[in-house]
Amino acid sequence: MTAASDSLVDLLGGKRGALDATAPPVVFAAGWLISGQSIAWGAAAAVVASALLAVWRMSRGEKVTAVLGGLAAVVVAALVALYTGRAEDFFLIQLLSNTASSLAWALSILIRWPLLGVVVGLLLGQKARWRRDPDLLRAYGRASWVWTAQYALRTVVYGLLWWSGQVVALTAARVVLSWPLLALVVAVSAVVLRRALPAEHPGFRHPRVPDQ
Fold first, then answer.
1. What is the pTM of this model?
2. Domain limits of the chain?
């Protein structure tokens, strides 16, 4: 990756979130298969795995709200599968969240508040200063389409596999479309962002705000 893409990875927490995104569904599928397709055992295994991850992350000083949010998502997914009696419904929350994310990112670009700029701006403490830089606003808009496509791809893949009840394939898709896809998206969006800016622009960390 380039320095810009590495910087975006660090800002967006991709490396830290990779384990959270893949371990619980893999453990769910493993527990479900080993127990003779028992949703209860699969759900229990996933929740325990997520709880252990939460304890480990908190021991490393990570934010409690973020850690508990990940655990809560796994608990809700487990409860949904237990309620419906369909193992594939463990992945329903992910399907719905990716659908909503795809729509939200596309809308943010259309209303000229591209979410990549919003997220990076907040993480860098820039608030909305980046929007006063026309070049950066345009660049964030273009780069945000890469992220929109990511969520759209997940929606299509997860949707087709969920509809056909392919639990093992859903698990594999969840792994492939988590960190590997995110790494590609970060790299591509970093390239798009850099190329959309004029050669003399100092970069996304330094918005050029016009004099008042």
1. 0.87
2. 3-196
